[in-house]
User: Fold these one by one.
Assistant:
Number 1:
Amino acid sequence: MSDPHLTPNWSTSALLTIDVQRDFLSEAPYGVPGTTEVLPALARLTAAFRTARRPIVHIVRLYRRDGQDADLVRRTLLAGGAAIVAPGSAGSAVAADLLPPDAPPLDPDLLLSGKPQPLGEHEVALFKPRWGAFYRTELHELLRGWGVDTVVVAGCNFPNCPRATLVEASERDYRVVLAEDAVSGLHDIGRAEVTGIGVGLRSVQDITASLT
């Protein structure tokens, strides 16, 4: 029997794609294994949310070349010259398969100021400075403004940013779903851990059918 406090409300849901940027794709020098491989599922998921006219937020990282305001674990790497999702670089762009037609390129100045960048109808990009998508961002205010109470999380790379985002969403009393075949780095221990905090594990096919 489903728990009424955890059951997704698809008519008031939003999709969060996490760090699906060119520099994090599997084949990139600092890419995350498995990320390119989930792009087809991510593309189906974003298309389904657009068709359902539900909001999509593409959460992105932007690392300044001097490592300023990056995670501590990344600062030495960045200060040593590694160029990863540098503001304005081709590698910082969201993977094209996920974007609506005629989406503008990312505006690094706008994003680094903390403001969402419109990419299409009910679709924006939003910069996050750390692992979780809610930390030091306007995400919660955006979602509440749209009347969202259910979030679907997908993207790159489960042990880090998606997992942190799932926890932060749960802390804010969202009904939370992980698109388990549209996230890289997911493992059985992680499945058990997030299920224990009330996250629902759903396939892209199941989510798409529920939206329609």
Note: The radius of gyration is 16 Å.
Number 2:
Amino acid sequence: MRAVQVVRLEGPQAVELVTAEAPQLVEGQVLIDVKAAGVTYPDVLLSRGEYQIKPEPPFTPGSEVAGVVVQAPAGSGFVSGQRVAAFPGFGGFAEQVATDPSMVFALPDRLSFAQGAGLPMNLLTVHFALTRRGGLKAGETVLVHGAAGGVGTAAVQLASVLGARVVAVVSSEAKADVARAAGADEVVLAEGFLGAVKELTGGRGVDIVVDPVGGDRFTDSLRSLAPEGRLLVIGFTGGEIPTVKVNRLLLNNIDVRGVGWGAYWLPRTAYLREQWTELLPHLETGRLDPVLGPTYPLKDAAEALLALDERRAAGKIVLELE
């Protein structure tokens, strides 16, 4: 089968399209013909050997896919020919993947395979962030950094569905329309966002900050929180891992909360299905509707990773296999 592999730990340019062996199906796994694969920031980090998991090259990245079931064990809830999304962890940049049924999810007919491939990591991560770690309540105000990206658009949509007022932060005017289309109530530029947020909230600040960016925005994110506000740390696409002066947390009784979705579900894989079950009605009605950015053929995986690394794209970047 065709697959994309990281052959050297030298970044996005060091991935190649190769002919690889089909996955060896272990008893109890679901085999899927991949139609589309989501591109995530961990894939970029993996290509440089900078992710917390460090496989030796050559290896196939790709943690989220959508496609059609080829084979499924009895009692798994899946049948041959069924449309699904899945979170295989690795190996998604290939024509087939095999994974545990707990990481496979029925894909509503209204969603394309490209949209389905953009769901597992981003949507389940922000669901965990907003509900379990953030304790979001209807009527609260949520600020989302990187709001035109894959994680950002998912956070904007879900926060809106959960009844929040959403303030989106984007890096340029060109990305503002993407955030608005995702459901943001207000959109502000990253440059000077603190002042804009204070003005929009009458000086009170926001209840939750969703931060997949990190870097030099972090201190102003803390300053933008209302009393008892929560800053949710999802990642560091800005490059720098910020530090916290804990005296700031005392001033307004604010929290900085880590969002380690993977660390949470790995010992309790049933949680993934619980999340999907809760989100499925919103996917079926279209209230949650993944915002796609550029799509690339499998052979152009290096360019897709580079576009994500350089933060050039708005919406979710996806590889399409057909």
Note: The first helix runs from residue 41 to 48.
Number 3:
Amino acid sequence: MSTTFTLDTATSRANPTPAPMKRLTVPAVQRRKVDGRTADPLVMLTAYTARQAQLLDPHCDMLLVGDSLGQVIYGLPSTLAVTLDMMIAHGAAVVRGSYHSLVIVDMPFGSYEASPSKAFASASRIMAETGAAAVKLEGGVAMAETIAFLSQRGIPVMAHVGLTPQAVNALGGYGARGKSREEHEKIVSDAKAVADAGAFAMVIEGVMEEIAVAVTDGVPVPVIGIGASAHCDGQVLVTEDMLGMFERVPRFVKRFENIAEIIGRTAERYAADVRSRSFPTEEQVYRPKK
């Protein structure tokens, strides 16, 4: 896939404005970490639609089509019911709506755990049908063989360690991980295993800060934190959480705006204008030309 982006926007409001910009590549992201540190932290947010991607793209290095769309878009209780077809549909939309960021698509629960060959079949579909540059999967030591298998066959993999939402039932909830010394050591071992297996980067989620620091300093690939530490090589949040779209968010989220309140007020004004027949006005109706 070409890294330059041009698109005719005449027929759809959802298409981004063409710009003479090259899309970031996996090697470019890897090169941001030099001698164990990333001087310019990597910015990543989730995106699920073309328009959302268009708005976020100029400000991000990476856009993650997260399986969190199950909860954010579809109102599901967890990510477990998200399907490969859902991820592909939204992944393709985000690729169409962006021209700068590296787009990464989550592999949903059940699409990769059974075997490396199963993972390759799912990942190759994602890559071919979305145009994304990489996939992301959860798991540490147990997934190292699969990560190596995919990487050796031309599929860049972002790993995900620490709190892994697809394992919510096994973990017993979404609480922070690494409170015990045993779990601390396991997360660090998981991180080193996926880096050694060929992951080009990793997300570390919901862990004690000292673990995030140890992992960031202990692996040669970029470490993207969420509920981890500012010491990480970059940060990611669910965009809707960051925008204040929901009443309840994890402790580690900073709300940079209250978009839910803005939408509510705007809908209230629209409803009032409709009920008072003050909308539409002369400016919004069609009349025969004189």
Note: The chain has one domain: 26-284.
Number 4:
Amino acid sequence: MEKYVNIMLDKGFKTVFGVKQVAIDFINAVLEGERQVKDLTYIDKEIQPEVIEQRTVIFDFLCEDVDGAKFIVEMQNCPQRYFFNRGFYYLCRTVSRQGETGDDWKYDLRPVYGIYLLNFSLPESTHWRTDVIMANEATGKAFGEVKLKQIYLSFDRFNLSKEECKSPLESSMYILKNMNIFDMSPFKEENEAFKRLLNVANLAALTPRERAIYDENLKNYRDWRATLEYAAEEAEEKGMKRGLEKGLEKGLQKGMEEGLEKGLEKGKAEGLAEGQRLIAINLKKQGIDIEIIAQCTGLSVEEIDKL
């Protein structure tokens, strides 16, 4: 029985999308009816800051097609407080990088697409796919030719069965979300793109060194999930306790019902904040990079350093 990588892991994601034809297949599935990519070139995924005080931008994958369009493809496991702003900033830096000096350049910008695979739900959306473009506010239609587009694909909201998948993207999402738990290989014989994807994702195809890195990623991922779940449960318990205590105090003054409700709300908020700090402390003990901890908890690097 074949076993496949978990796309949520850094090594699993890069094993799959580091293969050019697999990346082309997936991008074409995402942009079906809008753009057809014939070839890709992986380019330097690190954009150095224009001045020393600015942030260096690093992508999971940054590639370019033969027409000069750029594609950022990333996997994001946990929500961040400013996740949309972060993605928008990355795209804008990629657009600005196209600028050329001299009087002859006429702002001939090539499109930039950000494709983000999410292991969580976007609060702004109720669907598993969300496309964000510049649009005319009055009509809702794209403003001019689309030059910048963000596409968010949420595994958390994707719940189609194999039989319900009709489009190439739906089938690809089903495979990517579930392939690490497959007992057999769905779609593999139906489409060359799916066959390529599953062949690349096969654990047996990894070298011993690649498998060692993957296994270490898997251990860290499981530890992180366990820590996150424990911290969330502990935060909720503390929040409920504090909320009840404060609610009872206020209830003596302004009525039990009103005080309990407000106390619960404030207590939950304080408990969740405490939970984020507990998560950060536990992740630090495991030696996980502070920048990654900051992305996962929403805390600043300075706050984490003090813990």
Note: The two ends are 46 Å apart (CA to CA).
